[in-house]
Amino acid sequence: MKILMNPGLTGVVAAETKLSLVDGENGHLVYRGHWAKELAVHYSFEEIAYLLWYGQLPNEISLKVFNEELKENRYLPDFLMDIIDRLPVEMDMMSVLRTAISALGSSTFDWQPTVNQATKLTAITPTIISYRYRKMKGLDFIQPSQHLDHAANYLYMLTGIIPNEAHTRALTAYMILTMEHGMNASTFTARVISSTQSDMTSAISGAIGSMKGPLHGGAPTEVVQLLNEIGTKENAESYLRNKLENKELIMGFGHRVYKTKDPRAEALRTVTSQLAGSDTWLDLAYHVENTAIKLLEEYKPGRKLYTNVEFYAAAVLRAVGMPAELFTPTFTVSRIVGWTAHVIEQGENNKIFRPESAYVGSMPE
Ligand code: ACO
Fold it and tell me: Which domain of life is it from (predicted)?
């Protein structure tokens, strides 16, 4: 068999999946036969998690049962609160999350991966984040609500305020659009770990570690930093040009797969424009988008660099009041659905991943 080398595995198909189609040429994103951008505006987080895990949208009764299962699993066990409390104060949230998920790794999560395991990890993730976040701010922990859905409960546990409908809807749209995205770095990590028949918590801890990097999930925080540094519309062109002259990346632009507009960025752009009280910051974001696309075409002609999901994720998350330090953890709150769905799918037809490496070192004398 001829072995090809492909750095970054670009263009290599590593698995078959029924979960999503990411069509980078045409800018399409499909979840199990449905357009993701339509699911994002018409359905709840719970309905789309159900769709990805079970393969179909729930009926009224199955949704009710499923909602209850998620709500029951929102609570933090005492031992986990204790572990989180003992972590160094300077530890960033993604590292806290990785450690907390790992600490949950009892035999309950052993191979073979199940929807029940996926439900438990998905349900508890927002509580881990809000518990730690409030503790670090010197605020009392807010127990999960039994009356709010997943997205609204997350905002409620962070702020202590029941969010309005517009904010819940915007966060839900963001969460649905970022729930699943084919064989990205963190999903691949989860599948590789699971392919050894390791447990679900190991696969998800590894995926969190992969998501943490700035080239993957860390970008939206840097988008806010970019926009804050630019400050005004007048400043945008010279600031961005300077970055490109210095061969620096502009965060929130470019994508390994999409060589046209990222459909998730497009959908989130619509969501931001519908949010009440659109502010000057959003105005600046639209201006920076247009300027950066123009300059990227000038400095990187033909590379087709457009806004990626992270750019408008930053705008939506900021608009719903999410602190910038929680952007990547919030991405985890949604992407954990895709990771666990892939781990389950991997388990249905497992083959351990074992690519080759090409030796380029010296040989013994
Ligand atoms: N700013 C400036 N130049 C860029 C950018 C950017 N944001 N993105 C790509 N380029 C350049 C590359 O340097 C490269 O230049 P070259 O051909 O002269 O060497 C060219 O455009 C082609 O890009 P690739 O390197 O082929 O892009 P790749 O597929 O390897 O990387 C990536 C994709 C990592 C997302 C890259 O575009 C990037 O670093 N963007 C900024 C970080 C970011 O926004 N990450 C979030 C991605 S979305 C997500 O993870 C959910």
Answer: Bacteria
Among candidate residues 46, 47, 222, 310, the one labeled active-site is 310
ipTM of the complex: 0.95
Mark whether 190 and 274 lie in a shared domain. no
Question: Does 269 share its domain with 171?
Answer: no
281 close to 236: Cβ distance less than 8 angstroms:
no
Q: Which atom of ligand 1 is nearest to the CA of 248?
A: 2
- The residues near 175 (Cβ < 8 Å, ≥ 6 apart) are 45, 150, 151, 330, 333, 334
In a domain, 5, yes or no: no
From the list 255, 289, 342, 345, the catalytic residue is 255
What confidence tens digit (pLDDT) does each residue in 199-225 have? 999 999 999 999 998 888 777 778 888
Residue with tokens 């330090």: 325
**Is residue 108 assigned to a domain?**
yes
What separation in Å is there between the alpha carbon of 139 and the centre of ligand 1? 39
Q: How confident is the model at residue 256 (pLDDT cuts 50, 70, 90)?
A: confident
Q: Are residues 151 and 38 in the same domain?
A: yes
Q: How far is the CA of 79 from the centre of ligand 1 (A)?
A: 42
* Mean pLDDT, residues 298-323 taken together: 90
